[in-house]
Specification:
Number of helices: 11
Order of helices and strands: EEEEEEEEHHEHHHHHHHHH
Strand order of the largest sheet: 1-8-3-6-9
Strand content: 15-25%
Radius of gyration: 20 Å
Helix content: 40-55%
Number of strands: 9
Distance between the termini: 10 Å
């Protein structure tokens, strides 16, 4: 089960497995006890809800993908993923690939005629694909085949061909769905990216709403308003939740003492860290660590 998630200071995900030689990889990610932080990347995603229901939140909308449904995430779409509230588990199979795998060289007909109309269409961010149409059924079958090929050697040509076929099916789905999404102005979008980048880069430090506002070049009041309109929480609420998510990862993946993890994730003392952690997770840090290790033993 792939639980790795690495970002740079601008909240761009550095996708494990993507290489220059073959810019494709598959991740099986368990979201049952993990929230993917706000992020974006150039790579495209052909994904599948393998177990349970998954919620994807973007700047503009919230999407719920039920078990057995597929979904496409467009390039550079800022999003976060988590388990749906009423779902016991949530596991996704994510097929990630850089557009160049399908376009080939710069300004090829594949790029200009087939990919760019989708990549450059800001109304297309997340497309849910169900099995109630011919193209939807074929797309879901294709995802299962990609998953099977992931562990096979010498499957690169087959994978590329399937991704190309998947793109054709996606375009058919888009035409049928006639998806019309409303987007924020680019300036507001870029500003929220700036705020996220600052928080992700400095979360280990003592930062205030004034620090964030100065970095974004806006007033404190405007910073809070913009962030609440986009993420439905204040910047400081997001900062605390982000610190908790980083602490969860360290508790699950390392043997570092709880006190050290508190300081490593920006909390000023272990008592406040434990109190805050319990407020959000309904269990103490040590209990969370023990529960995660029990999960591993069961698997």
């Amino acid at each position: 089960m792939d639980l790795s998630f690495i970002q740079d200071e601008n909240a761009v995900e550095l996708i494990d497995g993507i290489t220059y030689e073959f810019p494709y990889t598959m991740h099986e990610r368990d979201l049952s006890n993990y929230t993917v932080p706000w992020h974006w990347h150039e790579e495209l995603e052909f994904d599948y809800a393998y177990k349970g229901s998954i919620v994807i939140e973007t700047i503009n909308r919230t999407y719920t993908i039920r078990q057995g449904e597929g979904y496409f995430i467009n390039t550079n779409v800022m999003n976060t993923k988590r388990k749906a509230d009423k779902s016991a588990t949530a596991v996704e199979h994510a097929h990630l690939f850089h557009p160049i795998l399908l376009t080939g060289h710069f300004r090829s007909i594949y790029e200009t005629k087939y990919l760019n109309p989708v990549l450059k269409n800001q109304s297309v961010e997340v497309v849910i694909i169900r099995g109630n149409t011919g193209s939807g059924k074929e797309f879901l079958k294709l995802l299962h085949t990609l998953t099977r090929l992931n562990n096979e050697e010498h499957a690169e040509f087959q994978i590329r061909n399937l991704l190309s076929e998947g793109w054709t099916l996606l375009v058919q789905e888009l035409e049928m769905q006639r998806q019309k999404n409303l987007f924020q102005t680019p300036s507001a979008h870029e500003r929220t990216k700036d705020i996220l980048s600052f928080i992700h880069k400095h979360f280990k430090e003592k930062i205030t709403i004034a620090d964030i506002s100065v970095y974004a070049g806006i007033s404190t009041k405007e910073c809070i308003r913009l962030f609440k309109n986009t993420f439905h929480q204040t910047p400081m609420d997001y900062l605390i939740r982000y610190r908790i998510e980083q602490a969860k990862r360290l508790l699950a993946e390392t043997d570092a003492p709880v006190t050290n993890i508190a300081f490593m994730t920006g909390f000023q003392n272990s008592a406040y860290f434990s109190k805050t952690f319990k407020k959000y997770l309904k269990m103490a840090p040590k209990e969370f660590r023990q529960s995660r290790r029990m999960d591993v033993l069961i698997l």
